[in-house]
Amino acid sequence: MGVALACTVKDERDSIDALLDSLAGQTRRPDEVVIVDGGSQDGTAERIAARAGALGIRLLHAPGANIARGRNLAIAATAQEIIAVTDAGVRLAPHWLERLTAPFDGAEPPAVVAGFFAAEARTPFERALGATTLPERRDVDPAHFLPSSRSVAFRRVWWERVGGYPAWLDYGEDLIFDLALQRAGARFQFAPEAVVNFRPRATLGAFFRQYYCYGRGDGKADLWPGRHAIRYGAYALAAVLIVSAPQQPGVLGLLAALGALYLRRPYARLLPSLRDLSPAERLQALAVVPLIRLTGDVAKMLGYPVGVWWRLRRRRGERATWRHHDEGDPSLSASPRPRVPVSPHPRVPASRRGDEQ
Fold first, then answer.
1. Binning pLDDT at 50, 70 and 90, where does residue 338 land?
2. Between vectors from CA 326 to CA 322 and to CA 330, what angle results, nearest 5°?
3. Which of 25-39, 242-256, 342-356 has the lowest mean pLDDT?
């Protein structure tokens, strides 16, 4: 059966060549490749156009389109039964597409195949960031893992059935798409060998902006309200304990113990990866982990209420949450789809998008 690769990009001049090079090196080449450029101003579209003929790429221009809208436009422009999706900013492993699409040829083909992703760090900071925010394969429960759309494939009919990616949401759109597929009854299969490599954010500021947007997206879509409430409560309690520390000598020891518990998993991932670093680089990577945790938490705590306010103000009177939202991308001419039952408490893993904070 035919396979189409869909991707959306914007201002990816520094990373687009790595994606295109890895596409050229695939052991299983896609039958179609459609890339939507969302209005790049840095020469990204020109770089793609220069190699479009050799790689069989159809380049579409959609200035102002967000990620979800761009993906929908790319998929709508294809004619294949199987759709593979990835992002700019990644490098595809040589066997990525072959292993991602192999389950569709099995005796019991799934509706969705969840690929995997790995950090490709260049600095001690990036190595620490990857260890802090990204799951390893041993952390994944295959029965409940929901894929990032940097590494996923699905049958076209299921994309049509749920109305495509949610164009109303700017961040977290792939998780909402996954949840819609899950609620519609799609069967997922994990393909851990279908790996894409990507570089974590290079600076603390860039990481803050990323997690602020994640938190804002959660607020817009009404995702994880309990988890966000726990985070606010935990930091409020920590602040109270710090203030009371001069009168309670044991409080600082308690805080240190809780902090060590909170950081145990990042350090467990990070330590085995430090062998090739110099002593100074190891110390730098180890020292920055608590700062990464704190930065990510603060970013989410600032972004989440902004998203909640957007949801309450912009969509008042509508059931605009992932649990009730039944609007895909209205500009697409996808097949009509049935309303699907909603599970009030679906089990969704915290590490779905590499987000363990």
1. very low
2. 120
3. 342-356
- The kind and range of the H/E element at 56 are none
The whole-angstrom separation of Cα 240 and Cα 233 is 11
- For 283-306, write each residue's pLDDT tens digit: 999 999 999 999 999 999 999 999
- Residue 181's pLDDT is 97
Q: Is the pLDDT of residue 22 over 60?
A: yes
Q: Which residues pair with 90 in a beta bridge?
A: 198
Query: 117 near 193, Cβ under 8 Å?
Result: no
Pairwise CA distance, residues 287 & 175, whole Å: 32
**Superfamily per CATH, domain 3-198:** Spore Coat Polysaccharide Biosynthesis Protein SpsA; Chain A (3.90.550.10)
How is the chain split among helix, strand and coil, in percent rounded to 5?
Answer: 50, 15, 40
Across 159-318, the runs of DSSP E, i.e. the strands, are: 188-198
Domain edges within the chain: 3-198, 204-314
240 CB-contact burial (10 Å; exposed 0-12 / middle 13-18 / buried 19+):
exposed
Burial class (CB in 10 A: 0-12, 13-18, 19+), 355: buried
Pure H helices in 279-355: 279-314
Query: How many CA atoms within 13 Å lie on the side-chain side of 240?
Result: 6
Question: How far apart (Å, rounded) are the C-alpha atoms in residues 127 and 139?
Answer: 18
Q: Of 294, 316, 308, which is closest to residue 224 (Cα–Cα)?
A: 308
CA 32 to chain CA mean position, Å = 24
CA distance 69 to 89: 18
pTM exceeds 0.90 for this model: no
Query: What gap in Å lies between CA 350 and CA 357, rounded to an integer?
Result: 8
What are 20's two structure tokens? Answer: 């295109």
Q: Tell me, what amino acid is at 257? A: A
Q: Would you state the structure tokens that stand for residue 64, as one six-digit string?
A: 């102002």
The pLDDT tens digits of the residues spanning 207-249 come to 999 999 999 999 999 999 999 999 999 999 999 888 888 888 7
Q: Using CA atoms, how far apart are residues 266 and 302, in angstroms rounded to an integer?
A: 23
The more confidently predicted of residues 325 and 228 is 228
